């Protein structure tokens, strides 16, 4: 009886908040892979410089303390969990991720990583993507020990996966320094094709490990982030070369996902057009309630785009007015706009379907 009351109250709250409800009895697991856009604290457990463990990171998080998220508050993965009425996933490296918490899923993301293992080498100890997949395998073994092999397989099959990769392969690899190793090895079009072929192997591996609903985000407008404006722009215009990289990479990612789904015979992978989701408020920030999409809330130098966000950085008083929180990462409010498109966007944003459609289809299965 008590559980029924809880379920009714939860459903009522979900209706009020406008989230997509998930039955407590059949709560869907959520698994997160990728880089700093979705890392929720794994790097805090590692000896790496790619950390967000000092103020003012987390200033608008419920605890008002740094959590390892590269945000003033919640990141994209957190907001998806919130909108689905799920518990937030925990960092897989957290010692608190035990027992019943395993049923919620896990976040394996690690700031600084990319599709390629040499991306982010300057950050030293980070969880490269194949190591994240190895940890996912370890997670499944732990889950099997708790609910049985068949139960674990079904739980993973019915889970939702978010993977966010690619941006670092450009800004922290190909374009990291003039005449980088990768830029001497590949012309940009060839490098993009190489990245796509490597990403395909990663996604196929995820499928082989049991993932059946996977949201794959493309890169945002890399040449428009405050860090690149500070480094490469003379007049506040987006950097042409990084924008060219995004314009080559994102369409090929979409085509690769279509081909992979055709090969599998099911819409396993969903392409999220992160580039357009960002460009909407980058090109017209005032339409979304921002005062600027060029200047980071936290930072220093031109556009607050130099170096890291630290306790000594310039800090804006109202984070909701800034599209970018730090030199590279959107503010929580910008993340909420992105997640809204993930849930309800047209096929221009989410292909072949948005997350609300996925949830509706899967609820009938």
List the helices and strands and how they pair.
Elements (H helix, E strand, L loop, with lengths): L1 H16 L12 E5 L41 H9 L20 E3 L21 H19 L1 H9 L2 E5 L2 H8 L6 H5 L2 H21 L5 E4 L8 H7 L7 H25 L4 E4 L1 H10 L14 E2 L14 E2 L16 H13 L5 E2 L3 H10 L1
Parallel strand pairs: 1-2, 1-3, 3-4, 4-5
Antiparallel strand pairs: 5-8, 6-7
Helix pairs in contact: 3-4, 7-9, 10-11
The secondary-structure element order is HEHEHHEHHHEHHEHEEHEH
Secondary structure category: alpha/beta
Percent helix, as a range, is: 40-55%
- What distance lies between the first and last C-alpha atoms, to the nearest angstrom? 27 Å
- The parts where pLDDT drops under 50 for at least 5 residues are 1-25
* Number of helical regions: 12
Rounded radius of gyration (Å): 20 Å
Query: How are the strands of the biggest sheet laid out side by side?
Result: 2-1-3-4-5-8
Number of strand elements: 8
Quick synopsis:
The protein has twelve helices and eight strands. It is α/β, with parallel strands linked by helices.
How would you describe what is shown here?
This protein is α/β, with parallel strands linked by helices and 365 residues long. It has 12 helices and 8 strands. The chain has helices at residues 2-17, 76-84, 129-147, 149-157, 167-174, 181-185, 188-208, 226-232, 240-264, 274-283, 332-344, 355-364, and strands at residues 30-34, 105-107, 160-164, 214-217, 269-272, 298-299, 314-315, 350-351. The protein has a 6-stranded mixed β-sheet. Helix 2 links the parallel strand 1 and strand 2 (105-107). It is globular and about 60 Å long. The two termini are 27 Å apart. Residues 1-25 have low confidence and may be disordered.
């Amino acid at each position: 009886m008590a559980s029924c009351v809880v379920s009714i109250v939860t459903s009522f709250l979900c209706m009020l908040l406008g989230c997509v409800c998930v039955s407590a009895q059949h709560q869907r697991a959520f698994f997160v892979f990728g880089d700093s856009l979705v890392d929720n604290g794994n790097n805090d457990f590692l000896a790496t410089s790619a950390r967000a463990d000092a103020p003012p990171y987390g200033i608008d998080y419920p605890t008002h303390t740094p959590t390892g998220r590269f945000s003033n508050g919640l990141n994209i993965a957190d907001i998806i969990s919130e909108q689905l009425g799920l518990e937030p996933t925990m960092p897989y490296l957290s010692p608190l991720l035990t027992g019943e918490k395993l049923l919620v899923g896990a976040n394996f993301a690690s700031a600084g990583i990319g599709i390629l293992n040499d991306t982010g080498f300057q950050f030293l100890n980070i969880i490269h993507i194949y190591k994240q997949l190895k940890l996912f395998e370890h997670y499944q073994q732990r889950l099997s020990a708790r609910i049985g092999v068949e139960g674990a397989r079904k739980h993973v099959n019915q889970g939702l996966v978010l993977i966010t990769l690619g941006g670092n392969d450009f800004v922290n690899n190909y374009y990291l320094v003039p005449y980088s190793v990768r830029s001497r090895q590949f012309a940009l079009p060839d490098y993009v094709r190489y990245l796509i072929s490597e990403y395909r192997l990663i996604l196929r591996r995820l499928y082989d490990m049991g993932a059946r609903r996977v949201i794959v985000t493309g890169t945002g407008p890399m040449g428009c982030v405050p860090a690149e404006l500070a480094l490469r722009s003379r007049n506040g215009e987006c950097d042409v070369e990084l924008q060219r990289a995004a314009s080559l990479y994102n369409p090929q990612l979409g085509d690769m996902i279509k081909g992979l789904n055709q090969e599998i015979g099911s819409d396993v992978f969903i392409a999220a057009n992160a580039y357009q989701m960002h460009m909407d408020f980058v090109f017209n920030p005032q339409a979304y309630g921002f005062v600027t999409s060029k200047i980071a809330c936290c930072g220093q130098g031109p556009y607050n785009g130099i170096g890291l966000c630290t306790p000594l950085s310039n800090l804006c008083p109202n984070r909701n007015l800034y599209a970018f929180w730090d030199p590279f990462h959107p503010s929580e409010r910008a993340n909420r706009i992105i997640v809204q498109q993930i849930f309800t966007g047209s096929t221009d944003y989410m292909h072949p379907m948005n997350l609300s459609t996925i949830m509706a289809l899967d609820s009938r299965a």
